[in-house]
Amino acid sequence: MSDIEQLQQQVDEQGRVVRDLKAAKAEKPQLDEQVALLLALKKKLQIASGNGEVEADGPKKKSGGASKALVLKEPKGTKDYTPKEMALRTDIFRTITSVFEKHGAVTIDTPVFELKEILVGKYGEDSKLIYDLKDQGGEECSLRYDLTVPFARFVAQNGISNIKRYHLAKVYRRDQPAITKGRMREFYQCDYDIAGVYDPMIPDAECVRVAVNVLTQLDVGKFVVKLNHRKILDAIFEVSGVPADKVRAISSAVDKLDKAPWAEVRREMTQEKGLDAAVADRIGEYVQISGSGEEVLARLQAMPELMASAKAQEGVKDMGLFFRYAKIFGILDYISFDMSLARGLDYYTGVIYEAVLVEENVRSSTTEAQSPASVAKKSSKKGKKEEEDESQIRVGSIAAGGRYDELVGMFSSAMHTKGKKTDVPCVGISFGVERIFSIIKSRKSEAEIKANRTQVYVISLGDSVEDSLLEDRMRIAAELWDAGIAAEFPYKIKPRPQAQYDTCDSSIIPWAVIIGKDELSQGTVKIKNMAQKVEEEKGGVVVSRSDMIAELKQRLQMN
Known about the structure:
The protein is of the alpha+beta class. The protein is about 45% helix and about 15% strand. The strands form five sheets. Strands 3-6-7-15-14-11-8-10-9 form a nine-stranded mixed sheet. It has a five-stranded mixed sheet with strand order 17-16-18-19-20, with helices on both faces. Strand 1 (about 55) and strand 2 form a beta hairpin. The protein is flat, with a radius of gyration of 32 Å.
């Protein structure tokens, strides 16, 4: 008798014991003891058999005798990507990486999870979004929330004094996902950071130059880079009368001004965070200021109460330098000095910035997959304003960053028992790939996206199996690969001619090498343009087999 059969027998016997006690109206303590034994046996049988719930008379039958169907879906806030989507994403990553490397950055990698104590206390109110892992090996760990804190840990742990690094990797946030807006629980970040002691604002200006270069090369559309300075913001809170213990909470509320009107943010400050209404009104006078660097600096310098603060003086001096360097880098036209920008993360200490699209309403890439009828039906249940929002994507920030001079020092001091602190000032920028991907994908049709990188398809034409020329196709494909040309051929002994041409169309393969018995006997091939369908080259251009590679490289502009 197997273990499962023995357990089932024990469950049946214990079930009879419980039923007999109930029939005899036994005392409750005695009955409870036997019921507990029955439940324990059922649990053992459930684990051993994997049959789900178990009754005293055997495994519980599902209605209709069928087991529950497995639901095949991605976890909430995650997404599978098709080959065409991955081709787009790969191009995005290549573009971003090329800009990073153009500026001299090197790349690193860090674990996808960190010790929990490394991450806690670094993200303000967003710390609640960190994914904690169950303790499996004596260490409490969490999935990384961003790439900045792991980078600071890496710098402190390895005693690095200066580095210009980039990192493309996944991060995790237990957020409420909105996939159409590019807000996910698992998503990629692409970070560029400069660590080291340098003269003020030079690396900061270069980071914004990197942001402008990346976003223009990706052609995301018209965008603006909003800038502010944490020291100016802290000075505003100070002169407005914000209690020290409320500064970060109020900063987080101010950071919502790009999504909500001032009245709503003021209500959060006063009603939810307990700030005095008069203090909130003084904050409002400052944080609604925005414009060009020169304009805003002039307005701030004309505010004696604010400029009495040493923090404000330092921040204004930094920003004056920043705009001077930004002019040299040719990026002033992309920048707005916006006093409402707060960046809720606790580790920022200086200049902060955020790139946002000027074109607020971009068609959602995911609505393309829905029929107009289904969208209309879904939207009809909502008000008109909400219906309009459902059909549009508001992606918000597409890149953000700033200066964090003390984060590495926090880790270095923790490493030493005497609390020795070694600050390595840092500044960086992070790109939200999912949001950028949503924007770019929404502007392309499925048909125009090429998933593969195949440049040439090898086609054979013949009337019989003997004319299939499979081995000749294989030899030509091998020759093309050896020459560095991306090529494919059909995996059939006797492929149909039309099926081969259809493959070129569906896979967007621009060139074909065509062979038949005549070409083989004459030592030639035909090269056909499959993308443009040139009339005078309708059947393909005949070239000698020995010239095939040179001709293709010329047509592919590989020389």
